[in-house]
Specification:
Chain B: GO terms for molecular function: ABC-type polyamine transporter activity; ATP binding; ATP hydrolysis activity. Chain B: Keywords: ATP-binding, Cell membrane, Membrane, Nucleotide-binding, Translocase, Transport. Chain B: This is Spermidine/putrescine import ATP-binding protein PotA. The complex is a heterodimer of chains A (422) and B (362). Chain A is mostly helical and 422 residues long. A two-stranded antiparallel sheet of chain A has the order 1-2. Chain A has helices spanning 20-59, 65-70, 72-78, 91-107, 110-118, 124-134, 143-150, 157-165, 173-178, 198-229, 232-243, 250-261, 266-274, 289-313, 317-325, 330-358, 362-367, 375-384, 389-413, and strands at 181-184, 187-190. Chain A has three domains: 16-52; 65-171, no CATH class; 198-418, MetI-like fold, CATH 1.10.3720.10. Chain B contains eight helices and 19 strands. In chain B, strand 9 (208-213) and strand 10 (216-221) form a beta hairpin. Classes of the chains: A mainly alpha (422), B alpha+beta (362). At the A-B interface, helix 15 and helix 16 of A face strand 6 and helix 2 of B. The complex binds adenosine-5'-triphosphate and magnesium ion (MG). Adenosine-5'-triphosphate (ATP) binds at residues 17, 23, 41, 43-49, 197 of chain B.
Chain lengths: 422, 362
């Protein structure tokens, strides 16, 4: 090699003079195209059926077009109003509201707007409903008076402040709600103590998930160890037993726990029969946190065992032997030599179980009662019962960010490339 | 040899894993203090099993193993104080080289200062003084090997076991490490039990070699005896190159005997492992002991040259002798041109002492 081709010299070229990098990239492009074509169907499917809906859903956590869409003229007129003056808006605004509501009532969209605004300030739903019923009977001119006659809320500055606050197309309202704060008349503040639920629910979700992860680890580690060290014949059988739950429906397994754990259930009956528990104070093991922890530990256990097993299987028994020949007792050999080598497996299993459980829905719903439910149950409630999709989306975004944050922290501490899943 | 000179003694040891077949059959073996003893044998002959029983990772099915005169069948591995080097080194991957070496000292609760000093000395012994802070994965195979040796020695055991420690290295490195291990053994005076299935390794390193086959020690002797005086056909065949001729004993005369080969050729041989006239026997003959100018030798036969292979310092001549077409003669290359040609019939000969009459195996 000559000096010119060393660092800082001219770039290497192929025989025909194209730079080496360019022709390499060209050669690789075909391969890349081919792999792209191979994954394209799945990619498109996921994009259309999964990613786009999710993006749309998440977008709802800040989206607030309904006010501007339903009351376009009012919103425009309100922008000229000086909110800090402490005076009611002038006649223009009321006239605009009249115009807007006439159309809205026609399209029946005023009730939707009412319920949307009711999330933020109670009383808004009935205000719009009531006003909607009267608006087409109003006379031309002097709308301000007529609106105030319909409902004296229209004569309050607070109502208009509120409308102005929620007239932009995007709002932080849902997110504030999701962390137990509100964007009230006086600005952002925490809700009164007795109305706070989400922060506590987030905390409980994290805490229960940690407990579940911990118990999965405690129960799963010995099993994985056994699996990895048993002769193939037995370990295959054991492996089938570990995988068995995967072949049974989640609902069935959760229901089975109901049968086992309830107060008239198998476990309580047995304890009573054995005389360990008196018939009058049977243990409450279901519809509370205990139920959630037991059932979810059972359901998520394989996700702990499998990564642990796959790591343990690669640890040669000669390490333990070496440690013992060097003078270590069984326990020291395990703790100083074997255990540290299983940490990547513990990391993988723990993160898998934790992330799965933090977003779990079915099982807490069925066996969690009121104090054993997770944030996801609340999200589901807002999606399907209260229809407050914006709040559901905000809660979802927070949950997602939490998981990503945990991933990041985990990566900083353990290192994601230390994780072995198989 | 007094009792005190024996560090390890196997007494009628048998081992079965499955309760059906014996992997080690009635092993009796005394290992002397300071000795380099090699267990040599083909794959599956039970060498590792013997080592594992000695280290305490397998229990003997029958018999007793003594260490310094004390029975150790019920002593757990960590209390035996035996150093061990594993075939795949078994260096702890999550510890640095220095931590690996300090491990046996830590579990012995030595002071930090003492640990450091011993680790340093051990690293210097294997010429890896600058590598203490590396992880095993950052070392070459040969360096890992040396760390494994240093770790097995750092707590100053009287006895070190090595199970094919050089198996994973290439030829050149293996030869260098053979030399180094041998050197360490001589300097420290530690007893070494070494397992290999590489006979040249065994011959170069050992004080004594126990040749294993099928769970039995076939022969236990020094390297030269093993080569010069094999006690049975397995050993003759396993150690070095060997020509086999089969026949029947026709006459016994003191330490010599007459043998008639299957094609009628009559030969004189050293009577090693045959009992009586009429026994079938395998004659064993080293290729370099055969002469092309056989004047005055006890055995002279005719052979046909089948193939000549030029190997620089010597020439291998493959011949057809008494019906054995794989008969090999090694001729030293003395410079003058040999007038051997393929297809030629020539006289070859050897001394009766160089021709061992051994047991007959099918
Ligand atoms: N843990 C075990 N369970 C059952 N059989 C075993 C076990 N370990 C070894 N064996 C059997 O015992 C016999 C002797 O094995 P061993 O490992 O002692 O042979 P070796 O001489 O060390 O061979 P190699 O040179 O291949 O290492 C073999 O037939 C082997 O299949
Ligand atoms: Mg072996």
């Amino acid at each position: 090699m000559t000096d010119t081709t060393a660092n800082g010299g001219p770039v290497l070229t192929t025989q025909d003079g194209t730079p080496l990098k360019v022709s390499l990239a060209r050669a690789l492009r075909r391969e890349k195209m081919r792999s792209l074509v191979l994954i394209a169907p799945l990619l498109i499917f996921i994009l259309v059926s999964f990613l786009l809906p999710i993006a749309d859903m998440l977008f709802r956590s800040v989206e607030n077009r309904i006010v501007a869409d339903t009351l376009p003229k009012t919103v425009a007129a309100l922008s000229a109003w000086n909110a800090s003056s402490g005076e009611l808006p002038d006649e223009n605004v009321y006239a605009a509201l009249h115009d807007d509501l006439l159309i809205a009532v026609d399209e029946k969209s005023h009730t939707r707007l009412g319920s949307r605004l009711n999330y933020e300030l109670s009383g808004m739903s009935s205000l719009f409903r009531k006003t909607g019923r009267r608006v087409d009977r109003m006379d031309e001119g002097n709308y301000k008076e007529q609106f105030i006659k319909v409902d004296k809320d229209w004569g309050k500055v607070e109502t208009w402040l509120f409308l102005k606050r929620y007239s932009p197309k995007y709002t932080p309202g849902y997110f504030l709600n999701a962390v137990d704060a509100e964007y009230g008349i006086e600005g952002i503040k925490m809700k009164p103590e007795d109305e706070r639920i989400y922060l506590y629910l987030f905390w409980r979700t994290m805490f229960l998930s940690m407990v579940i992860t911990g118990s999965c680890l405690l129960l799963g580690y010995p099993i994985a160890f056994l699996l990895a060290n048993l002769p193939l014949r037995y370990s295959n059988l054991l492996m089938i037993l570990v995988l068995l739950p995967f072949w049974t429906s989640l609902l069935v397994r959760t229901s089975a726990w109901k049968v086992l754990l309830q107060q008239q259930g198998v476990i309580n009956d047995t304890l009573v029969w054995l005389g360990l528990v008196s018939n009058t104070d049977r243990i409450v093991m279901i519809n509370n946190q205990t139920g959630t922890i037991i059932a979810m530990t059972h359901i998520l256990l394989p996700f702990m065992i499998l990564p642990l097993y796959s790591v343990m299987r690669t640890i040669s028994p000669s390490y333990m032997r070496a440690a013992r020949s060097l003078g270590a007792t069984d326990w020291t050999a395990f703790w100083r030599v074997y255990f540290p080598q299983t940490i990547p497996g513990i990391g993988a299993g723990a993160i898998l179980v934790f992330i799965l459980s933090i977003g779990y829905y079915i099982t807490p719903e069925l066996v969690g009662g009121t104090d054993g439910i997770f944030i996801s149950n609340r999200i589901a409630y807002h999606i399907s019962s209260s229809l407050n999709w914006g709040l559901a989306a905000a809660l979802g975004v927070i949950l997602l960010s939490l998981v990503l944050l945990l991933f990041y922290v985990y990566d900083k501490i353990v290192g994601i490339d230390n994780v072995k899943l198989g | 040899m007094s009792e005190k000179d024996i560090i390890v003694s196997f007494s009628e040891v048998q081992k079965s894993y499955d309760g059906v077949s014996l992997v080690v059959k009635n092993l009796n073996l005394d290992i002397q203090r300071g000795e380099f003893l090699t267990m040599l044998g083909p794959s599956g002959s039970g060498k590792t099993t013997c080592l594992m029983m000695l280290a305490g990772f397998e229990s003997a099915t029958h018999g007793e193993i003594y260490l310094n005169g004390r029975p150790i069948n019920n002593v757990p591995p960590h209390k035996r104080g035996i150093g061990m080097v594993f075939q795949n080194y078994a260096l702890f991957p999550h510890m640095t080289v220095a931590e690996n070496l300090a491990f046996p000292l830590q579990v012995r609760k030595m002071s930090k200062a003492e640990q450091e000093q011993k680790v340093k000395r051990a690293l210097e012994m294997v010429e890896l003084g600058a590598f203490g802070n590396r992880r095993p994965a950052q070392l070459s195979g040969g360096q890992q090997q040396r760390v494994a040796v240093a770790r097995a020695l750092v707590f100053e055991p009287e006895l070190v076991l090595m199970d094919e420690p050089l198996g994973a290295l290439d030829k050149q490195l293996r030869e260098q490490m053979q030399f180094e291990i041998k050197h360490i053994h001589e300097n420290l005076g530690v007893s070494v039990v070494y397992v290999t299935h590489d006979q040249s390794e065994a011959l170069t390193m050992s004080d004594r070699i126990a040749v294993f086959n099928d769970g039995i020690i076939q022969q236990l002797s020094g390297p030269d005896d093993l080569y010069e005086d094999p006690q049975n056909s397995f050993v003759a065949q396993f150690i070095g190159e060997n020509n086999k001729l089969e026949g029947k004993v026709t006459h016994v005369n003191g330490s010599l005997c007459d043998v008639e080969l299957d094609d009628g050729t009559r030969l004189k041989a050293d009577k090693v492992n045959v009992n009586a006239v009429g026994d079938r026997t395998t004659l064993s003959l080293r290729p370099e002991r055969i002469e092309f100018e056989p004047q005055g030798l006890e055995n002279i036969v005719k052979g046909k040259v089948e193939e000549l292979i030029y190997l620089g310092d010597h020439i291998r001549v493959r011949m057809d002798v008494a019906g054995n077409r794989e008969f090999v003669v090694k001729v030293r290359n003395r410079g003058q041109k040999r007038d051997l040609a393929v297809g030629q019939m020539v006289d070859i000969g050897w001394a009766a002492d160089d021709c061992k009459a051994l047991d007959f195996v099918q």
